[in-house]
Each structure stands twice: as C-alpha cells, then as structure tokens.
C-alpha cells in the first residue's frame, strides 16, 4: 500500500497485465482476420474460469433486459459481450504493432457534426459506452474531424493502483491518442482548469468529446433499464454556457472488425429558462437514447463488464466532504 492509500496493484490489474502480454504475443503472429475467432475462444475460457463473476453478470443482464428483448438468452448475450470485449482488446494491441489495426468503421450522422461546426461555436460529443474507447474516436477521426477529449485521471486502467495509473492507463491511452487532437485531463484534486481549456477550445470551434455515463451524486437522477443512476451534467452545462451544439455518440458492431459510429442531435439546451430544469431535460434525453441503444445493441454496451472504482477510497484522496460530485458538475454554467 502506498502512502496515499493506493495499492501497488490489484487482482484486476494483474489480470489486465496478463491479458495485454498475451494479446501482444498473439497479435504479433496472427493476421487481423484471425483475431475475432481468437476473441470468441477467449470469451469461452473466461466464462469457465470465472463462474462467480459470470453468474453475477448474467443475473444483471436478465434482470435489466427481461421483457425488453424478445428471445433473450442472458448467458449467450454475455458470451457475445465478452467476445466483443476481447476483439476490442486485441485490436487495440494490434494497433501498437507497425501493421496497425484497420477495422472498417462507418460514420452515420456526419452532417449533424458538420452543421454544428458551420455555426462556429464548436460541438460537444456526449458519448455512450459502446464498442470500447477506440472505435468511436477512430471512426470520427477518419472522417476528418479533430477531437479534443475530456479524460478522467484514472482513465484506461482497471483500478486506481500504481500499476493501473502508470502502466495500464498509459498503454490504453496510447492507442486512443492516435485519433485525438488533444486529451484534457480532469485532475483528482478537483481543480477546474480543464473547464477553462474546454471553453477555449469550443470558442475556437473545436469538437469536444465528453463521456456521458459518469456517475455523480449531485447530477441528475434517471433510470436506465430499470436501475437508478445519477449522471453528471457537465456536457449540457458546457453547451449551455458556450452555445456549442450538443450531440450524442454511440457505436455498434456489424460484423467482425466492422463497426458503425452514430452521431445524433440532442434537443437544444435551454439557455434562457431555469438552468437546472434545462440540464435535467438534457440528461433525461441522453438516458432515453442510451436505453434505446442498449436494447438495440445489448452486447456492445461496455457497462456489462465495467469495473467501478472504490468510491470511498477516491473520496478520501480528493479530501472533500459532503456529497460526491463529478468535476464537470461544477462551475461550467
């Protein structure tokens, strides 16, 4: 345990290191078309090696999707989800080799983004957790858009340990960074310099990407697939204060190594009425779109296997008191 209270490593970190090492070796000798079958085999191994985790995740899928998807088979869906997760992992590692990863990625809704930039106030891409971190950025970058991405300080790793922050995070970000113009990081200290940076970029008519499923106790309470969540209000608040267009982004897999990234508009955030009610309406619209896309493409939703950090440990590191907030909930309106 470090002096800050952070562990050197966790079990999830060790699993991550093993996965990356094995993926590096595999992608060094296999061709790109051989990776999806390997991903399917890895999913089968994971199901057998982690029976308790599998049972928990299958139960969650059944609880949240029962009655929403005809013919739902939760275990089969979880197997498919794991297959896609490993396909993303192998693709990201392949991208580190000289040959690179070149999946086919279509972009739907490009005109929404082009029209937003034509107005000259920038655009905010409010992203949903589908198909990993790289595919959406890759698809948008290939169509000629330079994206400034707001990133959590612990983004990319499996925990807040030394190994995650200094090894896993940096590896994950290296692949993503190929498709970004800039990465703006929210510090754990809760300083707000990143908000000013984002406002300056939008004033320069940039495209800013913000993950939309960040939890925040002081955000807006919604329900997604029957479960409660409180989503941060940073993206709509930033749109309200800058006049930038607010768009959502989700992705889905059409076939092995073939994806579609979709950009959709969000109803304009009310800049004249009550600030809180306007933010609540925007977050509810986001939640409604998210639920619809999960039902349409359930295996592609990353949250089925997301690892949530220990909130108590993070709160202690921030040296804050009172309700747990998300940094983008504050001072952006």
Would you mind describing this structure in some detail?
The protein is α/β, with parallel strands linked by helices and 333 residues long. It has a domain at 104-329: 3-Layer(aba) Sandwich (Glycerol-3-phosphate (1)-acyltransferase). Helix content is 46%, strand content 18%. The protein is built from eleven helices and nine strands. Helix 2 packs across helix 4 and helix 3 packs across helix 4. The longest helix has 22 residues, at 275-296. The chain is globular, with a radius of gyration of 20 Å. It starts with 10 loop residues before the first helix and ends in a 15-residue tail after the last helix.
What is the CATH class of the domain at 104-329? Alpha Beta
CATH names the topology of the domain at 104-329 as Glycerol-3-phosphate (1)-acyltransferase
The SSE order reads HHHHEHEHEHEHEEEHEEHH
Architecture (CATH level 2) name of the domain at 104-329: 3-Layer(aba) Sandwich
H/I helix tally: 11
Main beta sheet strand tally, sense and closure: 7 strands, mixed
What is the percent of helical residues?
A: 40-55%
Cα distance spanning the termini: 39 Å
User: Structural class, from helix and strand content?
Assistant: alpha/beta
Strand order, largest beta sheet: 1-9-8-2-5-3-4
Low-confidence stretches: 307-324
Number of distinct beta strands: 9
Beta percentage is 15-25%
Supply Rg.
Answer: 20 Å
Overall geometry comes to: globular
Mean pLDDT comes to 86
